[in-house]
Q: What sequence folds into this?
């Protein structure tokens, strides 16, 4: 199976259980204190399994050096930032947890290498991850834990299964060249399932799911390439094992 299909599958599974992130880089960037773990791929990774962190959230204080209700953070929705190299291999990953009703925007950042949490920090979160110091080709924001808030097939006015080509043509005519906000208002969904960003282009690719009554793997996606807030390209695909590689689609739109 192609790497990009594996990334999509990881996002689907990650909505209901922890994703085991396999990273192959020589260095994993840590918190702002410049903590790094240097190793080769065969060396033992120093850190905690996610099960250990869930059972004893207070272990995270070893990384953050701060008192906090870590259990409360771990129970909230997760944003996963996945760094991919030029071959779409995972190099680094960061899990970000926020408290929606908190008075400030402090988030819990967990830095992952293979199946271990190797660092963490408490810091402000503005919706984006600081990529300074990371070597990567593509950055994927995975909002999979927010999947239930995606649009439902039963509420969607187009048949994306039997009449997909007709639906795609109408949606392209309706939204290409228009503001992304217009599509979001149409879907009544304001956070994508995935957002792809690359260093070599100022365009992004966002994926929105139309949840099938049959299940997630039978669902369709509406994918849009966006520049300066406007949709330059729209296409429909399958949520599981899509025909189009979103990374390649974004590369082709440079």
A:
């Amino acid at each position: 199976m192609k790497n990009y299909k594996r990334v999509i599958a990881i996002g689907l599974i990650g909505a209901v259980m922890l994703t085991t992130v396999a990273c192959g880089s020589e260095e994993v960037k840590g918190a702002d204190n410049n903590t790094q773990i240097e190793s080769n791929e065969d060396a033992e990774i120093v850190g905690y399994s996610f099960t250990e962190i869930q059972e004893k959230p207070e272990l995270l204080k070893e990384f953050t050096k701060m008192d906090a209700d870590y259990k409360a953070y771990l129970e909230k929705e997760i944003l996963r930032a996945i760094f991919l190299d030029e071959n779409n291999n995972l190099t680094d990953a960061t899990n970000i947890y926020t408290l929606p009703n908190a008075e400030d925007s402090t988030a819990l950042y967990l830095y992952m290498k293979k199946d271990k949490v190797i660092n963490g920090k408490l810091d402000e979160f503005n919706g984006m991850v600081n990529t300074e110091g990371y070597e990567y080709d593509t950055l994927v924001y995975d909002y999979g834990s927010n999947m239930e808030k995606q649009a439902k097939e039963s509420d969607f006015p187009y048949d994306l299964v039997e009449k997909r080509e007709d639906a795609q043509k109408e949606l392209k005519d309706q939204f290409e060249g228009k503001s992304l906000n217009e599509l979001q208002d149409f879907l009544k969904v304001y956070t994508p399932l995935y957002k792809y960003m690359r260093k070599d282009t100022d365009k992004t690719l966002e994926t929105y799911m139309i949840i099938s009554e049959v299940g997630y793997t039978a669902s369709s996606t509406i994918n849009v390439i966006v520049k300066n807030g406007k949709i330059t390209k729209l296409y429909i695909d399958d949520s599981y094992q899509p025909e189009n590689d979103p990374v390649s689609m974004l590369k082709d739109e440079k």
Summary: The chain has seven helices and 13 strands.
